[in-house]
């Protein structure tokens, strides 16, 4: 192969445009795989060649060593090693990128040579004894550490003739030697008194090397004393070796110290399952950590810290140790051992300071978020104690700590004010948002410990924040502390029970008294969110409802209207019965907000849900009046759009907005009393097999449901709208969802409009099958099929759904593109599952083509999409179980039983991702339960040679059949059999076998 051509290609790759790079890259990859690469890689690594070419030669050598070592004859191994060492010497002084690749290549070579028991010792001795005389001792040590570091990493990816188990075993044996070599080197350097700057790279590589070897060798924690002490001495030296004018470590010192701490983290996490076994060692190490690293954290306990990364990894070390050995450390709460008690106390104090790190996260500090998990872990450890006396003692011991942490968290959760905000970027703000969520979760842990005491602490914090706010009334930037205190109240709202706590009463009063116009809108936003969060408590204490309403209504006209609409939604849902005395003024406020033009679309939609909740508790006359002034504008705009035949994007957006607003109103407006709605649960009504409300004796005369009045007046408009936008999926889906909400609320009260609704659905089916239309049609059938007056309409509707979907699936099946209508298939079989389960009589009376239905279900379950797989398998399972009660269904199962099993086995063999094979257990159970004798005959399809794959043996198939034939009800056991069989079919590897190409 022409070396000049390769060199030109490499240079072209690094210096040409993107498209040419891609072509060149493919060619270079191809020649790297060739046999000749063993020769030309050395030629490319000549000192007179460009560094890019040298680097390509080095990575080619590494690639060949990793993947094609078998191509090198055994008798050539010695010569190869010599050439590799000579190349390392040649590039010992650079370029670094070439030397680095050569070091990794030597690591790979050593992995291949592990069958020689002393290979690592020999190579190590060569460098330690400076046998590569052309290089300085420092350079040789740097190379050695890189090589040792690379051995464990390369062992995981190298293609070697040595069995993987043997590689791991040999590395386990050599772990002690490798780590010992590094520790000896570090000790010698530290004992020398001063670390030269020129040696820092070697020291960093050596320390990294320890971390890579710790995953091998099953190193016992009690054998790590020397390693831990040397690493701590290294950290201590780097940090304290000389005064720092600006307090900032040099980059080399910082990297070395941080790397050493990370190795300690590896040490402490290597034996986390043997906490009690090493309890004395853990305590000894914790004392060392506290003595050596604690003072560093004390110095770094400041904001705008120049050594923040070092502080971060040190705190990580303490938290990792606690996570792995929590019971050992937490034993210090109860023990009489003074040393252990002191370790526990010092550790908790250190983590309190971590949580209370000066500065604002994440712009001034990055450590405070680390300890959040600890506060949950500590309370969980205490609450899980089996001994009640111990639990009580520990509980009392940690309460003061959590009371202090509560105040810390309030202070740390303060939002930046307008003066501080310029130094925050969007990423900082998002990180802080997540941090506040973590604080909220931690506050819940605080409440679990403090209970009612938490409200006392929060009440004190509220007083302090108000005092701070009022200290300088002219200061408009003093609001963050009050906002953070309110946030703390909001975070624990779910924990507050029904009692009339004076602290909550005071909070609600404060929320109404704050002069929000003087401060940032964020303060009002948090107040509104908190008012909504306490809706459940207010429902038990309704005398405080007016103040909550007053605050939320105030928010409707602000920039925080989103929080106001959320709060009103929660309040009117939780306190609906108590809302009647305040309903009309609140409706007026909602109307004003809707007409004000300042609300976003999502806020308007949400507010309509509130409107529906409120209208449900006012007089019928007032409902009609408010419908006219609040809902009519929505339909008036729809009417205007229809009349103008406006098909613009702006018109479409307005139509969808108005339909979504109407949908939300329909979902919440219901004047029926709860007792009258008891029979309205669809699943309960149909599931009992009793006549629906449509066929029952009518109750006492009542006014027509408001939703029905709206629909009666606007059905013509909705039909026209549907006709004009029939080919726009988003508009039709939104319309169907609105009508579905009406049906869900009205149930059988919708009967006067049944024919109109069915015609609308049929019109949609004639053009485009919307999933929401299918769901709505299913509900109509389940509610009205047993009503003699409606049965013919329901049959027609059922037939239309079947025929439309059959037509669509046939069309796409012929094009072999069933995946293109995966959503339609999923919806269709979800619909059929409901009908099969609750109204199977439909299939017999409508004379449905059940065989076709089953055939397409079999095809659907072989698609790659999750939805069709699960829904079609669910349908087949229910269909099989119900088929004995319907001759037409039974005939379909009897005729397709063997095919159902054949396709099921193909799915297990590779069509279906292994993550989803569990669902097929239901098919085996259903057939075994309902068709036991046929099942035995059908399952013989598995006897076909190499079916479903050639990986599974005849004995494995017989064993599987025996197991599944035995089980008729134990779903979990059949799932286990199915999972195991699927793995056998795929040779225990998740390969997707394409049966479509085989016959």
TrEMBL record:
Main location: nucleus
Region feature Disordered, mapped onto this chain: 671-700
Pfam entry (one): IBN_N
A GO-annotated cellular component: nucleus
InterPro entries for the chain: ARM-like, ARM-type_fold, Importin-beta_N, Importin_beta-like_NTR, Importin_rep_1, Importin_rep_3, TPR_TNPO3_IPO13_4th
Localisation: Nucleus
All residue ranges annotated as the Importin N-terminal domain in the record: 24-90
Database matches in PROSITE patterns: IMPORTIN_B_NT (PS50166)
Protein origin, superkingdom: Eukaryota
Keywords: Nucleus, Transport
Known partners and oligomeric status: Interacts with UBC9, RAN, RBM8A, eIF-1A and PAX6.
Similarity section: Belongs to the importin beta family.
Name of the protein this chain belongs to: Importin N-terminal domain-containing protein
Organism for this UniProt entry: Culex pipiens pipiens (Northern house mosquito)
